[in-house]
Amino acid sequence: MQIITPGMRLVPEAVLANNAAIFRAIPETPSHPDSSRHRVVIVGGGAGGLELATRLGRKFGKRRLSITLVDRNRTHVWKPLLHEVASGTLNPSNDAVEYIAHASRHHYRYRIGEVVGIDRAKRQVFVAPSFDDDGRQVIPPRVLGYDTLVMAVGSISNDFGTPGAARHAIALDTAGQAARFNRRMIDACLRANAQYEQLSPGQLHCVIVGAGATGVELAAELHKSMREIASHNLDNIDFGRLIRITIVEAGPRILPALPEHLARDSARLLIDLGVQIRCGIKVTEVTEDGIRLGEKLFVPAELVVWSAGIKAPDFLKKLDGLETDRINRLVVDETLRARGDEHVFAIGDCANCMLPGEENALPPRAQTAHQQADHLVKVIVARLAGRAAPALRYRDFGSLVSLADYGSFGSLIGGLKIEGLLARLMYRSLHKMHLKAVQGTFKTALDTVAGILAQRTKPRVKLH
Ligand SMILES: Cc1cc2nc3c(=O)[nH]c(=O)nc-3n(C[C@H](O)[C@H](O)[C@H](O)COP(=O)(O)OP(=O)(O)OC[C@H]3O[C@@H](n4cnc5c(N)ncnc54)[C@H](O)[C@@H]3O)c2cc1C
């Protein structure tokens, strides 16, 4: 297992190899001066966890509850924006929420670190140590006690063990990975513009593996931003003709989880832009120079993004015996409680929540994490009052796909089709709803105005 914390070094394998023994020797960190408070520990401050910590903090943080949010990062960037960070159309430093400041404003505690395990009998969470770039331990391993534990650690992309994928393809699971892809993309444009010789096969070609919403939206964003970058003095070559973007999907069509008309409209728009779509074929290997499709076909590419499928982080598989599904998600009931433990709950992408009468678990989407965070507040209130926890009622508000400035399509409740500006505004409003939940209406409105003003003075894509 490797633990990566931005700005800090990997935790050496040896430190974690025997993590239970290490952590059992460490005394529990006091959670609050008032020891009578019920201790809620939330692991993961993403779309679900941060909203939950904020709501609980506002409601109970000054009195009744000791709320601790643990996240391995120092800042939160809403994950559905990561393809825009990757393409450079969004600068993460403008949209990030600083956990330290946010926690103090909303009456919860924030602790940085990567959770690597729990002890259910003692109700303890194990947080790995963090190291700086010179290998010095910045923060020692810690043990936090809980009365209620909420796992909200999200998901990571699933490369299904495809040879070379982990090494040569970039996933968009974190803001760091998205920023790394963005740097590579800008470097690719600068290099192509500066070289005297002909472009080599695969140069300025980008392959996106997986045609879910992330892959499809990324294709459009890249189409826009690579041209935008090229328009800033990169005039030695014809970027419009030389940039190539290809989406590869193993299933029969793009956007396999969304209604067919959304896939049809999106595919038509992407093809008009010159994006190549290859469905019904599997990537069998990723190399330094491109991807292999099936047995024989090789597609050269300078940039490969992996966005085909997700799984919950591997450490959940060994979370002190809690039940997980085949993609490591914790199995929870309709009150979001983990099967077999009345003190552990899970929300968002890392939870497998199948509601009674349904055939599928709730989808791994921001709106699921949002509704579950909302619901868990009610569950915790019931828990504190000694009442039975209410069951979640999920409402699917539909799906929206936004293809950069080129077009947006949506399918709302009851199959209502929308497109164009209305679909785009609704897509944007999802992010604003999240910001409103974590920052409040006033700050969200101020940030929106500031963002509009900043657009007038800054380039439309990030150029460094
Ligand atoms: C590029 C992209 C575009 C997307 N677009 C959409 C969209 O348009 N609409 C939509 O509904 N959904 C979209 N999604 C899916 C959506 O982002 C997720 O469903 C949602 O973020 C899940 O929320 P979460 O709280 O479960 O996890 P996350 O938001 O991923 O948060 C998980 C948090 O846990 C932290 N963490 C992880 N492991 C540990 C650990 N061991 N210890 C401590 N902290 C840890 C992480 O740092 C992170 O802060 C998109 C996803 C991607 C990648």
Strand and helix map with partners:
Layout: H1 13-17, H2 19-24, E1 38-43, H3 49-60, E2 65-71, E3 75-76, H4 82-87, H5 92-95, E4 97-98, H6 99-105, E5 109-112, E6 115-119, E7 124-127, E8 130-131, E9 137-139, E10 142-145, E11 148-151, E12 156-157, H7 165-168, E13 170-171, H8 175-194, E14 205-209, H9 213-230, H10 239-242, E15 244-249, H11 260-273, E16 276-279, E17 283-287, E18 290-293, E19 297-300, E20 303-306, E21 310-311, E22 330-332, E23 344-346, E24 351-353, H12 366-385, E25 398-403, E26 407-412, E27 417-419, H13 421-439, H14 441-455
Bound molecules: flavin-adenine dinucleotide.
Residues 43-49, 70-73, 76, 79-80, 82-83, 114-115, 152-154, 172, 213-214, 313, 348-350, 364-367, 369 line the site of flavin-adenine dinucleotide.
